[in-house]
């Protein structure tokens, strides 16, 4: 479903992503991990078409995100690490706009809008200007916009930032249900417990290179460390004391 082929992104003399190849399959929950400045967000922005690769390509269900951006983006919902909204629009207006952009029937827009407003406890904020919403509430609105047009692929960068425990649980349940119904989730996070709880496979990026990819069990075998994913992550990225010993 997501195919990244020899992706490279350079910013001047800095190589942020270095020859990255990766396949994420339909119905898979894939967690993308790495230290700060490893290249995760740069990879995500190339995947969704916000950055043009220096070389290589990203395709979504066979559609090149640079060569066929309209066809690729019809399949996609992207949730960035900071919840951008149009400040002078209310959540209700934003979801209506998103539905119209994706060519949804007005009745379907209203049904899906109300369903996600109810699920994410957004009803009381539906007419509030977005500029007045808290960070966590804005994040929930962004999730509502992502789910409502029934994408095939969700690309998510740090989904739990600003969410309280209740709404973090609701979002995690919604993401997992999305993959059970055949959707694909590509999720970048620093919260290793989220990756360990939800993912089918994990990819670990370090200094722009994919240094490990597999199930949590396979990564433990590769690192030689049992227990929590944190120990495995630190060894494979060379960040922990054990890796440096």
Structure description:
There is one protein chain. The protein is an alpha/beta fold. The protein folds into 2 domains: 1-75 and 152-245, P-loop containing nucleotide triphosphate hydrolases (Rossmann fold, 3-Layer(aba) Sandwich); 80-150, no CATH class. 40% of the residues lie in helices and 24% in strands. The protein has helices at residues 40-47, 69-74, 91-101, 106-119, 135-148, 165-180, 192-198, 216-223, 229-237, 241-244; strands at 2-11, 14-24, 29-33, 55-60, 63-64, 76-79, 153-157, 184-188, 201-206, 209-214. The strands form 2 sheets. It has a 6-stranded mixed beta sheet, with helices on both faces. Strand 9 (201-206) and strand 10 (209-214) form a beta hairpin. Helix 3 (91-101) packs parallel to helix 5 (135-148). It is globular and about 50 Å long. The N and C termini lie far apart (40 Å). The model has no long low-confidence stretch (mean pLDDT 92).
Quick description:
This protein has 245 residues and is of the alpha/beta class. The protein contains 10 helices and 10 strands.
Write the layout of secondary structure elements.
Elements: E1 2-11, E2 14-24, E3 29-33, H1 40-47, E4 55-60, E5 63-64, H2 69-74, E6 76-79, H3 91-101, H4 106-119, H5 135-148, E7 153-157, H6 165-180, E8 184-188, H7 192-198, E9 201-206, E10 209-214, H8 216-223, H9 229-237, H10 241-244
Parallel strand pairs: 3-8, 3-9, 6-7, 7-8
Antiparallel strand pairs: 1-2, 1-4, 4-5, 9-10
Helix pairs in contact: 3-4, 3-5, 4-5, 8-9
